[in-house]
Amino acid sequence: MYKILRSIFFLLSPEKAHYTTMRLFKMASKLPFVPPMFQFTAEPTKIDGLTFKNKVGLAAGFDKDGKFLAELYTLNFGFIEVGTVTPKPQSGNPKPRLFRLKKDRALINRMGFNNEGLKALRTRLQAFRKKERNCDMLIGVNIGKNKTTPNENAVDDYVKCYEGLYDLADFFIVNVSSPNTPNLRELQNKGELKKILSALIAIRDTQEKWKPLYLKIAPDLTLTQLDEIVELQNEIAFEGIVATNTSIDRSILKNSNKIIVTEIGAGGISGAPVLEISNTFVKHIRSKSKMTIIGVGGIEDAASGQSKYDAGADLIEIYSGFVYSGPGLVKELGTI
User: How far apart are CA 219 and CA 210, in angstroms?
Assistant: First the structure.
């Protein structure tokens, strides 16, 4: 059934298809027979002081502004990331900025942290928390910096988002790894990371309630750079790593037309081609550390999900696989 619907939605541009699909599901989810279709039972998992009803999450970027929280709850995700959110609203990069590579079951995006800003997300999270007081889907907030904020002042943007949403999030993810904000990935060096993470942890130490803090990394780091980040976790008590973000390495594409890929231009690759490098990163981190690892990249079925666990991930997230395989993927992964 989903393959038929997908073929119809794929007639639309990717960004339009995304919002059209979710708006239609918003209406469909109100039908009494729809929510039970996505229910399943899994063994709860306790990690970093949180209880995850299942280990399947949704990666950042899918619901940037918290507009589909109720619908994602219906789909029975164990946890989701909203964002990436920046202090001020920003429109992101010019359209088109999201592209399908169907032969590789991949996406290329250069969205550029398009979002409605901190205040808008806070309003929606407050409304959802008030309505769903017993919600067992954990909500992580993925935080970033505005494009116009120079790197030397980046810590200020992360602090604003962190402080502004601390009471509404279950956990936080620091995003310094998107390839679509100029110079953002420079913040992955040890010195800059230490400055950002230290500032956030200092704020956490003043709060009544402790909340986990994770770092999202790029799959294009060298192993030396990756080792430096792992070593940093021994110095600063952040809880773990989300591995990985999208890749700018076009060599991982095996089936797509090279001319078409060149015409698409800049952007990060997600989906099936990222599975191997993401698993390599997860395995490398696990060989060096016992920190929490949230594995993301290339998960589109039970086998690819299991490969992430086998590499050493504690939790997994989906995005592109959700687009290609459909909402039933949550249940498929949640029961492996």
Answer: 29
pLDDT tens, position by position, 66-85: 999 999 999 999 999 999 99
What average pLDDT is seen over the chain?
Answer: 96
Q: How many angstroms separate the CA atoms of 219 and 231, rounded?
A: 17
Dihedral sign, CA of 223, 224, 225, 227?
positive
Low-confidence ranges of the chain (pLDDT < 50): none
pTM of model > 0.90: yes
44: CB partners within 8 A, 6+ apart: 51, 52, 53, 54
Question: For 230-271, how does the pLDDT look when each residue is reduced to its tens digit (9 = 90+)?
Answer: 999 989 989 999 999 999 999 999 999 999 999 999 999 999
> Is 178 annotated as catalytic?
yes
Q: Which residues of 216-252 are buried (b: 16+ CB within 10 A; e: fewer)?
A: bbbbbbeeeebebbbebbeeeebbbbbbbbbbbeeeb
pLDDT at 1: 77
Q: Which two tokens stand for residue 199?
A: 């500032």
Catalytic-role residue among 29, 177, 178, 270: 178
Domain topology for 2-334? TIM Barrel (3.20.20)
Pick the closest to residue 244 from 177, 334, 325, 144 (CA basis).
Answer: 177
pLDDT for position 182: 85
- Written as six digits, the tokens of 148 are 């116009």
